[in-house]
């Protein structure tokens, strides 16, 4: 009986004592969706056997952040990305607050990455804009490695699956309407995606379409040569960019000095220098323009 009375008195006395220091303090990084530099760690703990009950607990990080709650676990937020804090816990009741627990093991805090810097966009060819950026380094990646890059255009275009080590991307969008465009770059890691940063405005270069007049089928791209062309040896030169100028041939500078020469058929014979008046000379009849040796000009 005596022992039971002593036990009752001891339990009653515990009701007027502060709790013992918590034990088994275990921190767990919880990074999903956490904004850059706003890391969160969930800290679990227990009260040792025989401790007076506690009504609240306070968890403190070695980096200075703290949080309170009525039970385990308690989440501490606002910790910088890449930090490696340890944690202690105190227990409180109406009689007071316990001493701090032993420090936990360290945990690496991770968050979503910071944005890329030095972003720019420039029109490099028809319907193609080149987007450039500088990747964050160190803890600016959120305390963990980047996993991918995504780009969206103000025209509704989207480019995914870009290598996490890339620092530029050629955005080709055949359906883009020529005009002002901007691009937003998002970086991702295991915790999520950055808030995104937008480039300068760039005017997308429209594609080039050569003009073909209505009479094109009748005048494709060959210059006109008179009927004696087979006897005219000059051929115009078409430079390498011919496909873009399909019906205007290029004539070298010497062309004006290299005209075509008319063709005279063999039947034409100049008038004889002697004989005159339609007479026959050397067998030629000037009137008939034929050779009639030994015949009169009447042929």
What does this structure look like?
- It is rod-shaped, with a radius of gyration of 48 Å.
- It is mainly beta and 299 residues long.
- The longest helix is centred in the N-terminal third of the chain and has 13 residues, at 2-14.
- The N and C termini lie far apart (172 Å).
- Among the domains are: 2-97, Sandwich (Immunoglobulin-like), CATH 2.60.40; 117-203, Immunoglobulins (Immunoglobulin-like, Sandwich).
- Residues 1-9, 241-248, 254-258 and 273-278 have low confidence and may be disordered.
- 4% of the residues lie in helices and 32% in strands.
- It is built from one helix and 20 strands.
- The strands form six sheets. Strands 10, 11, 14, 15 and 16 form a five-stranded antiparallel beta sheet that branches. It has a four-stranded antiparallel beta sheet with strand order 4-3-6-7, with no helix packed on it.
CATH topology group of the domain at 2-97: Immunoglobulin-like
The whole-angstrom Rg is 48 Å
Q: What is the helix/strand order?
A: HEEEEEEEEEEEEEEEEEEEE
Beta-strand percent range: 25-35%
Average residue-wise pLDDT: 79
Name of the CATH homologous superfamily of the domain at 2-97? Immunoglobulins
Number of strands: 20
Enumerate how many helices there are, as a single number: 1
Low-confidence stretches: 1-9, 241-248, 254-258, 273-278
Largest sheet: 5 strands, antiparallel
CATH architecture of the domain at 2-97: Sandwich
Terminal CA distance reads: 172 Å
Helix content: under 10%
